[in-house]
Amino acid sequence: MELKVSPSHPLEWLALLLNRVPMPLLHGQMFPILSKAVLTAADKGVFRYLSGDSRTLGEISEFCAFKPEPARQLLGVLVSLGYLVADKGKYGLSAMAEKWLRTGSGSDLSDLLIYNNRVVWKWMEQLENYLETGAGIAYHQHFEEPEWQLYQRAMLAVARSEVNEFAKRCPVPARAARMLDIGGAHGLHVTALRSKYTGLEADILDLPGAWSAHPEPESFNRMEGNILEVKLEDKRYDLVLMSSLAHHFSEAENRMIARKVAASLKPGGIYVINEFVHPARLDSDSGLVGTSSSLFFGLTSTSGTWTIAETQAWQAEAGLKPMKARRFRTVPGRVLMSAVRV
Ligand SMILES: C[S@@+](CC[C@H](N)C(=O)[O-])C[C@H]1O[C@@H](n2cnc3c(N)ncnc32)[C@H](O)[C@@H]1O
């Protein structure tokens, strides 16, 4: 699966092949407003308002406090992008949006879009600074309480979009008794594994700010701390998961974490790194998800995405034996990279 401009007619395919399509016009003029339209619609409640019922332009404008003409333009974008369908003067959610944006659908990504609109969008202004100085934003060190709340809700929404495939394909040793999830405060990955592997107890380690966004007690052991600083108990775990965190750390830090994790595993225990990966080879067919995420995590954390080979090398250097990497079928660019303590 790829993020690409795709032809809808053989002559357009030919035009693309012959380089007659002004791609920078599409990327530079249309892509930014497309993203901002989706984020703003989510933040202003368009998808929430349409969850359950189709509405007229007037009703949507009134609910969202939009002027009718700009609202009509916004809704036009959302129809063209496949989020809404327009029928007999009313707008409703498309089948795609029913699944991914309807309030209460169980896979609603609205919280990610709201976080991106309120917190992340302004970071884009700092890309030049990142390129010139090499210093990313390091947001985990600067967030105040409101940003932590938005961030954690967003991470939970993203996790919902992958958790079914994750639980099916994450390797878990037979009779696993205890696991650690590094940076898993929202608890969804652990909850999914625990419902599949009964008797699996879990520790979850996360930063104090993350826990402040999840106040209720849960059915796992909360550990407050920084993986770069905490000491893990030797041979305590059958499974250690680190999901969407390697992209916030430098190579040296990821190596150090792998050594720490390896020592904390029982023989036969597994270290799973769940990540968006950087493509192994760079060309115009290489994964746009991986390269754009790399730049994004560079900007935000002075890190980036890593290749499967780089990730497995950290695991191997820590004395673990890498298993075959498993690519998600439903999330482009996402891979489970696991290694076992022999
Ligand atoms: C991108 S989110 C991923 C959340 C979750 N693991 C998932 O895949 O859905 C990164 C998580 O790691 C936590 N985190 C960031 N730096 C950390 C550190 N140094 N030690 C422990 N947790 C950290 C964040 O607070 C956040 O909860």
TrEMBL record:
Span of domain O-methyltransferase C-terminal: 149-281
Source species, domain of life: Bacteria
Pfam families on file: Methyltransf_2
Protein name as catalogued: O-methyltransferase C-terminal domain-containing protein
Lineage, broadest ranks: Bacteria, Pseudomonadati, Bacteroidota, Cytophagia, Cytophagales
Keywords for this protein: Methyltransferase, S-adenosyl-L-methionine, Transferase
